[in-house]
Specification:
With 154 residues, this protein is mostly helical. Helix content is 73%, strand content 0%. It has 4 helices and no strands. α1 packs antiparallel against α4. The longest helix is centred in the N-terminal third of the chain and has 36 residues. The chain is elongated and about 100 Å long. The model has no long low-confidence stretch (mean pLDDT 88).
């Protein structure tokens, strides 16, 4: 895969994750506000605790998605594979998108599933594009002819 395509995929995935982070935060703030204004409890749970928990979940999710976006921007800017920790964070993000994509089919609909699958594809494509280079003929060292260690005794 060419350098320009790899960088484009990394930057596009970062942009999508940043937009998704903003959307997740907005959705959780709205849901937390609705729970607080309804003043209803779920099995005796305090509505204030539920709304604060929703706000915290939105903030943590948004920060996680922004972290993944920053890691992808750095990957694209440096044109180097992400390090071990960054790769693990991006793999976790991809797994979360896969699981949430499977759940959104029944809960939200096929459009949300398509969005989550597209984001999953971008993250995986960025990870694969910056994976180890395959050993081609130009990457293999030329075999050296064997030389005798020492001349035979006379």
């Amino acid at each position: 895969m060419g350098v320009m395509v790899r960088r484009l995929v990394a930057f596009l995935a970062a942009l999508v994750l940043a937009v998704e982070a903003v959307g997740i935060v907005i959705i959780n703030v709205v849901l937390g506000t609705v729970v607080k204004n309804q003043d209803m409890s779920l099995a005796g749970t305090d509505p204030g605790a539920m709304s604060k928990g929703t706000w915290v979940l939105g903030g943590v999710s948004g920060l996680f998605l922004l972290l993944c976006a920053v890691l992808l921007v750095l990957t694209g800017a440096r044109d180097r594979a992400p390090g071990r920790v960054a790769r693990i964070v991006l793999i976790c993000c991809a797994v979360v998108h896969g699981v949430l994509g499977a759940l959104t089919v029944g809960l939200v609909g096929w459009a949300a599933f398509a969005w989550m699958t597209a984001v999953l594809g971008l993250i995986v494509l960025a990870l694969v594009a910056y994976g180890p280079e395959p050993a081609g003929p130009e990457a293999r060292p030329e075999p050296q002819p064997e030389q005798p260690a020492a001349p035979a005794p006379a």
